[in-house]
Amino acid sequence: MTEILSPLPGTFYHKAAPDKPPFKTQGDAVAVGDVIGLIEVMKSFIDVQADAAGKFVRYVANNEAAVMAGDPLAEVA
Question: pTM to 2 decimals?
Answer without folding.
Answer: 0.93
